[in-house]
Amino acid sequence: MTNYKNFTSLSNFSNEELLDILDLAARVKSDDYRSQEAAGKVLGLMFFNPSLRTRTSFETAAAHLGAASTLIQPGQGTWTFEGNQGVVMDGGKTEHIKEAIQVLSGYCDVLGVRAFSAMEDFEYDKNDRFLKTISELATVPLINLESAWEHPCQGMADWQTLRELFGDQLGKKKIVLSWAPHPNALPMAVPNTALEVAARSGADVTLACPREMMLEDTVIANAQKRAAEHGKNITISDDQQAAFDDADVIYAKSWAPSLVYKNKEKIAELRTKTYGDWTITADKMGLTNNARFMHCLPIRRNVVADDAVLDSPNAVHIQQAGNRLHAQKAILMKLWNLS
After folding, report:
1. Each residue of 101-148: pLDDT tens digit?
2. Angle CA(130)–CA(136)–CA(139) in degrees, nearest 5?
3. What is the pTM of this model?
4. How many CB atoms lie within 10 A of CB 138?
């Protein structure tokens, strides 16, 4: 079994390496695998942002392997942390991550960090500077629990779900990643990763979104490169209904494009008014090839997708969420070199 240092970005891994993790995830799910192999190890989970699935699934995965877990929520039972470099800390932040991460590395055997985009500095977020700073400070393996730019753990659960649904026929299926409306401006981490995973899977992939909501060129170029490895191309469409034609999977997700860093008011108008009719409905799902509906959760019912879509037998968002546990258990096993 290959042992890995970190799990911070899918780009650090070949398809073969990621499929190896997914094969292990499938085995631990099938066997309801539990052991004491990681007894005495500690998983540190640092959440700068809220969590339901990521926190609980990682705590459960650690417990299933015999490890302990500890939760760090900056400002909630711990000191508030400063992440910027060279600042004069005479304000509300109490402790710098330079000290915090080095100390936590001495206590824990793996660190997981969740830190969303604040949507204030585009280049800072695009380069995932906060996560990279933590990675440079940590002396134990680091897991990205969702950063400003990527959500690799969600991506692995998505890929596991696609493999379960379609098996070796996945390369013949059409996956549509569709933008959807939302009352809040959301980061691009999940759609960035979802597009990469869909392309890596070998399926035909369509990105459906309004022109003003387009993902970044570098993200699309990376997905195109991954698709080309399977002899495929990424199709981009601003016609949602046309994109849904003959689709086998509709993956719905809201996100705000880079313009939000300069003009939040403009994006708010586009998000809630101009393109408010991009909600996923049963009628739109009827245009597909009896497609499965996917979403990373949490989801705003009757905003992102209607009740009729979410309560349909074709909705697999609960299966996706369940696979977070198994994919992450496999990631921990790889990081700890467990059999």
Report:
1. 999 999 999 999 999 999 999 999 999 999 999 999 999 999 999 999
2. 125
3. 0.96
4. 21
